[in-house]
Hints:
Elements: E1 18-25, H1 27-37, H2 42-45, H3 47-51, H4 62-75, E2 82-91, E3 99-111, E4 116-125, E5 131-141, E6 166-170, H5 175-184, E7 189-194, E8 207-210, H6 218-226, E9 233-236, H7 252-276, E10 282-287, H8 301-321, E11 326-333, H9 346-354, H10 364-375, E12 385-389
Parallel strand pairs: 6-7, 6-9, 7-8, 9-10, 10-11, 11-12
Antiparallel strand pairs: 1-3, 2-5, 3-4, 4-5
Helix pairs in contact: 5-10, 7-8
Amino acid sequence: xxxxxxxxSPDELRVGLTAQFERDLSEADVLAFAANSGDQNPLHVxxxxxxxxxxxxxxxxxxxxxxxxxxxxxxxxxxxxxxxASTNARFFKPLRFPCxxxxxxxxxxxxxxxxxxxxxxxxxxxxxxxxxxxIQMGFALHEERREAPAVAPVVPPPPVSGDRPLxxxxxxxxxxxxxxxxxxxxxxxxxxxxHRRPLVPVAPLAAAxxxxxxxxxxxxxxxxxxxxxxxxxxxxxxxxxxxTGGLLTTPDDAVEQQLAFGxxxxxxxxxxxFAHAPPTGGRLVVIGSIAGTIKPTLxxxxxxxxxxxxxxxxxxxxxxxARKQVTANVVCPSFMPTGINRDSTERTLLRERALVPLxxxxxxxxxxxxVEFLLSEQASFVSGQxxxxxxxxx
Length: 394
């Protein structure tokens, strides 16, 4: 098998194109697949057990054969631009090992406008040419485009200083969070809350705190980082992802996670800010979405529900936080080609841009500007508001 993936362009693809490769499957290959996948069924890994079955010896996992078909798709046809979208496999007979297999595929459908197609793949015993599996694979071609540029500081941010107000930014390692850190670090001392990914070097003088909002103990980690200093503001930009589908079909845990980030984590961050804000007051700014209550989306129903919970949580928190001169607001950007939308295709970007009367997509600078205003003294009487960055969309 070639080490370098083929690179068929959309214009070159057509129904009827074929590709194939051969390779040996050894006991080591099957045992390695069993270890990596966790499928240690004795029919694949226990020779004594397999001999006592009707198969007479160990057989190759069906999923390993699907993996061979995936190799054909990703390395040969269409190659490096391929993104697997669906599989449908049939297995005609057991594939015993060690053996040599031939994996051959034919492009059976191709839609150049949608950049989607189907590949039919056969796995065969090379010596006998008897097929052991047929795998239908739906695929799309991903596009190569640059990530939307983050907002760069106009001037290099000064070192984290006790003389400047301290702002906590959650989700600081994400596309949106890192842009906010870069912009706000010009004026504030930043505590950048990260989870798994490291803080990107867009504002290296911000102080990173690693903690998980979904697990106990994050309050103690942030309090330790504060070192007794007051916390002026919290910008809550963390979000767990973008599940698709409706509420009837989305698993409960995915819905619960969206609601937790929208409501429960927002409330806990508000409590933390209330306890650590200076006597002169503070700011809570939560990043929502127009997919909340402004323009809910049925195909992103769990996400819309979570973002709607953000808005109502902040509205209800605002009167309570006002007792300590802490304001609370939500900024709801429209579609942005960064963060959870960073993998959007050019077709998606064109479609979303066409929906905006101002003729362009919301960018990180638009969002950072709104957040910066809400953190400022000029916004001291703005609280309990949901501000939509819609570009005049209705």
